UniProtKB/TrEMBL annotation:
Whole-protein residues included: 299 to 596 of 596
Membrane topology type: Multi-pass membrane protein
Protein's name according to its UniProt entry: ABC transporter ATP-binding protein
Superkingdom in the source lineage: Bacteria
GO CC annotation, single: plasma membrane
Keyword Transit peptide: no
The keyword Lipid biosynthesis is assigned to this record: no
Family that this chain belongs to: Belongs to the ABC transporter superfamily.
Amino acid sequence: LLMAYEPAKRLAKLQVQMERAVVNARMIYEILDMQPHQREKPGAADLAVTDASIEFRGVTFAYGENEKVLKGIDFVAEGGKTTALVGPSGAGKSTVVTLIPRFYDPSSGEILIDGQNIADVTKASLRRHIAYVSQQPYLFEGTIRDNIRYGRPDATDAEIEDAARLAYAHDFITAQPLGYDTPVGENGVTLSGGQRQRLSIARALVRNAPILLLDEATSALDTESEAAVQKALDQAMHGRTVVVIAHRLSTVIKANKIIVMHEGRIAEEGTHESLAQRPDGLYARLNNLQPAPQNDLS
Ligand code: ATP
């Protein structure tokens, strides 16, 4: 049991380091238990999740004094379904995702989860229901086991292994010299991009949260890794409310809903079939979606 405290302790230390340094914000998102910056309403209730549906209502947002990067966003990400955000670079996709765990608060409008304004609930309860998988998974100094446990500090070894199996990571982990006790991070073994992705997915799986925020990798992995990562993601997405910043055509095609963003607004919304039929639409003209890799098993 003592082992469970170690990541929690490191988390506290890491938090201090991060507060002192300007870091890549996307790295922090993976550790959703970090000290929140926004204030909580006094007497805020815990979020009560039923379907885990997410709704944006008239959301605008600006980073500090800068120009608005979200100019009125309205959509529903239905519970248990996958909503894909697509659009040109700078359209505001990452910003939309960032608002869900309240790394920032909207300038106006509101975000509801199962009808509750997320500004009115405790931040700990909000973030407990959310897991995040980033494009560039961050590995902390420590063992593979520790790195998965960051998803949920009180996870047992058995739960960590189960998550790793589901994330198609168990085999490469046990092939390492010290298995789950193999050190990673700057002073540890070097893992491939696909292996890092799968550890990050295991971290999300061990969290077992109903909402999964996913920033799909843009950089190509080798075909074998790609297929393993895809299978791991399918496991993680299953039965959850997923909001994915999608870069792969295969992900977009499978999504229950596609939100096409352009310059801080929603340009189009629909399924792949409905959007692809509008030849003059932005979706039909998007050329930054990558085709599925050849052996994509989907
Ligand atoms: P990409 O696909 O390139 O990640 P995106 O659609 O996710 O793009 P965002 O990252 O949400 O777009 O960015 C929207 C706008 O907000 C851009 O103009 C970007 O420069 C700006 N922006 C993003 N993060 C910050 C920040 N931390 N501070 C100031 N401006 C930011």
